[in-house]
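User: What would this chain look like folded?
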Amino acid sequence: MWNLAKILGLVLLCAAALPAHAQDYPAKPIRLVVPFPPGGPTDIIGRVVGQKMQELLGQLIIIDNRPGAGGALGTDNVAKSEPDGYAIAIASAGALAISTALQEKILYDPLKDLAAITLVARVPEVLVASTTVPVANVGELVALAKAKPGTINYGSTGPGSMPHLAGELFRSSAQIDIVHVPYRGAAPAVNDLVGHQVHVMFLDLPALLPHIQAGAIKPLAVGSRQRVTSLPDVPTMTENGYPQIEADNWYGIVAPARTPNAIVTKLNAAAIAAMKAPEVQEKLASQGAILIGNTPEEFASYIRSEIQKWARVVQAAGIKVN
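Assistant: Here's the prediction, encoded as structure tokens.
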């Protein structure tokens, strides 16, 4: 069992092996950009992990919410910041992998303009519906959409986000006419779903679970390969006959390219130590997040593989973003 003393020991051990300029880091507050509004899954994971990193590094970590373009605007802000370790971001699959396949002109190159720190977590996407939509499962939703083409809308956290891609895969796979309604993050999207302004959406489980448990929205299917323990009675999309719709979102910490390797190493050690803290694991597990933690090299390789994967999916589905 990891305790605070062991975690602090790991961070101090890594610091002792670093060059002098990195040993002084951090000497001032660190800005952690969350490229979505407060209250969404990126924000939840970023705040929980960031708070523990703050304790371990002994320096304030300021959460800076910068929503827009499916997470691309906030991520671009960090990509263009000084590479000194004082501006980092917790970005999602949409901003680090999917956007490169969807947009003709991207603001930044995830592999060239950002330094990978670590993959933090994966979370399953869940297909949910407003309580006013008269369906109880995926089959009924498809039947309703086919009976009333163009009248069912689906929300997302923005163009190029994982919820958008999952929704488009559902639309093309089920051969239904549903309308995309993009939002600037999970929190406003969920608010409109609960308020019956949007009919259905795929979204990360952490942002949906409290509303599902309260009966404010209806879960129809899980986008991961297996059912999730927090929603054991909700079938997967594969069980509903759509094995091609596999959507797990993921989140990782990045810094500007050319951030000194020694600082990248120190941030990586602090992030991984934070994820091993029992209170962090407990908080995020209750939200349905699966904590990962890996090396900068492993995370960079993962981003590269995800870019290739989603490029194939986008091309096959004919998905485009204006």
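The longest helix spans residues 296-317. If you want, I can go into more detail on any region.
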